[in-house]
Structures are given as structure tokens and as C-alpha cells.
Design a protein that fits this description.
The protein is 19% helix and 12% strand. By secondary structure, the chain is of the alpha+beta class. 11% of the residues are buried.
Length: 242
């Protein structure tokens, strides 16, 4: 039977003592407590779609983890080549475009008598590649700027907790992971070395000053004179009008 409160609480001793409402609140709390304690709990990680007698919606991390969306930008990783070395060629593109300045790179050069074809073509490689994950703003510009597909953010992992700041600084051994990636456009798949090609490089345009360029002077226009031809070392001087 429902309890009906009076219009004037001052005339009812029960409401002045707050005992009915207090017992009603304790009953609701006890009902939820025992139902969540002994009821069947749905372990579905999608909190909104939970079903069952238990109404607990807290995700018991790390036993339960909510899946990341497809476009989630996780931790960085250096993409390895087929031989296990990083695809990075130390071009500094990622470090230059990074708005947080959290990437530090030091470049080195392979020896000329390197045995593997990849090293003969690339020549440069990172001796140090460090990312400070505490300063990173997870913008993904480093991934977009890399011309060699050497850095990705497809790990689907967030930054793990550490006890000190140095633990958030990721170096090459910590970043180099994941499956190897190879593209048909990789230079080591096209040629064996980095020597100059045999064919002569030809430019599609003519530079200024090469050959004879016909220029129309103010004196030749309208007087029937032919335009003067200037060579590569000559220049036209303007004469003041009288």
C-alpha cells in the first residue's frame, strides 16, 4: 500500500521524525545491493547494452576492456623492414612537423660496402629515435608526413602508466614492433645500389638565359623593327625617353 504524505508535514509526527522516508530509502538501497551482489551480471563490455538482473555498469579494468574505435590513434610504433631494421631514413619530416616537438632524431650513414641492398640504397638511418609520450598531443601529423611509411599509430594501445617520467620516453627498441611492411615503390625493390643512374637527367623546361630569347623592346614596337635577340650573357638596358 502506497504511503500518502499530508499537505502539512508539521501535523504528521511520522514525517516530522523522517522515519518513513528513512526506512524507504534504506529499503531501496538494500534491494539494489543484494540484487547486484547475488544477481547475474552481464560481462558485455558495451555498457549501454548490458542485460541481466545485476545493474552494475562499471567496467572491471583490466579484466574487462572497452574496444577502441577503428579510427583510434594509439601508441606510436616504428615499422620494420623485412630484415628487421626500421624503415625510417632519418629525413626529419616527422620531427619538423610535430607541433609538440616531442620527437628527437639523430641520423647516421651506412657504410658504402654494406652487404644488404636496403642499406646501399637508403644510406641514412636513425641512430636515435625518441618520442616523449607525455608531450605528444596525439595529432597524427607525424604519420601523415612520413614519406616512407616508417611510423604508424595503429597499435590500439594507450600510454601505459609508469613510475617515473623516463618511462614515458620511447626509444627505438621500444618503438620497433609489429609486422614488417614492404611496398613495391621501395627503392631497394627497384635497384641494387644508390649509384647515379646511367641515363642523363633532362629537365622538362629551359632555364632563363639558355639559348636565344626574343624580346620586344619599346623602340621596335610600332616602327617596323624586328625584335632584338639576346644571348645568355646579354641584357637589355632601358633608355630614358626624351
Amino acid at each position: 500500500m502506497a504511503y500518502k504524505a499530508t499537505q502539512d508535514p508539521r501535523t504528521d509526527v511520522r514525517e516530522r521524525a523522517y522515519l518513513p522516508e528513512l526506512l524507504k530509502g534504506l529499503g531501496i538501497t538494500a534491494r539494489h545491493f543484494f540484487r547486484n551482489l547475488f544477481g547475474t551480471r552481464d560481462t558485455n563490455t558495451q555498457v549501454i547494452d548490458r542485460k541481466g538482473t545485476s545493474l552494475i555498469t562499471t567496467v572491471e579494468y583490466p579484466e574487462e576492456k572497452i574496444p577502441y574505435p577503428p579510427g583510434y590513434r594509439g601508441l606510436h610504433r616504428l615499422v620494420p623492414r623485412d630484415d628487421g631494421k626500421p624503415r625510417c631514413v632519418a629525413c626529419y619530416m616527422c620531427a619538423t612537423i610535430c607541433p609538440a616537438q616531442c620527437i628527437y632524431i639523430e641520423a647516421g650513414e651506412y657504410e658504402h660496402d654494406a652487404k644488404d641492398g636496403e642499406s646501399r640504397v637508403i644510406e641514412k638511418f636513425p641512430t636515435q629515435f625518441v618520442i616523449d609520450e607525455l608531450r605528444c598531443i596525439v595529432c597524427g601529423l607525424c604519420v601523415e608526413a612520413c614519406p616512407k611509411d616508417a611510423i604508424r599509430m595503429d597499435t590500439y594501445e594507450h600510454t601505459k602508466p609508469e613510475y617515473n617520467r623516463q618511462g614515458f620516453v620511447y626509444d627505438i627498441p621500444k618503438l620497433l614492433k609489429g609486422p614488417a611492411v614492404s611496398h613495391p615503390s621501395d627503392p631497394w625493390n627497384k635497384r641494387e645500389g644508390s649509384e647515379q643512374p646511367h641515363h642523363v637527367h633532362k629537365e622538362a623546361h629551359t632555364r632563363i638565359g639558355e639559348g636565344l630569347v626574343q624580346l620586344k623592346t619599346p623602340h621596335s614596337v610600332g616602327h617596323g623593327h624586328e625584335p632584338k635577340k639576346l644571348g645568355s650573357g646579354e641584357s637589355q638596358k632601358s633608355h630614358p625617353t626624351k
